[in-house]
Amino acid sequence: LVVGSELPLVEGITDYFQNDPMLQKIAVIGPTQNGAMLEGSKAFAKAFMQRHHIPTAAYLAVKANQIDEGLRFLDTLKSPFVLKADGLASGKGVVILDTLDEAKAELQAMLEGKFGKASDVVVIEEFLQGIELSVFVLTDGKNYQLLPTAKDYKRIGVGDTGPNTGGMVAVSPVVFADKLFFDKVKEQIILPTIQGLI
What we know:
Shape: globular
């Protein structure tokens, strides 16, 4: 069983198959519910990265009763401002805003349920400038295998002028991902992640 969507993984489909005597002989490609938390909760993933010294942007995760703390944290950041619904939001839960006033209003709207339960917690994140790509890795918890890389183009509009989407298009392989790049990815991200999962 190759699970293509995050939601069934977050809800525990792998655990379900592993624990059912009729189904446990079927191999499942996808993490357990605990492992899927890295995708299912941005706040969990950020805390995991900090705990295991994996480079990530500065952040603060807030709930509705912590909005004042969130507003103060926004005051410490430079434009643009990044707000992320903590849970799964079908690729629509990340908002990048240019002004502090917009960011504060959006934080309020998100914590009031703009993305449903997905934004019960909102991650406020430092904006990182640069080129983004995805490195896909399969692991059994100890060993790993790299899959081809892909670069997403997520913002609608020429020159990244519009809102984020779940992904307008992706290109693979990524031409700038050379051996030196992958050595950094391995040492700074893949190995610490696997060790953290253990």
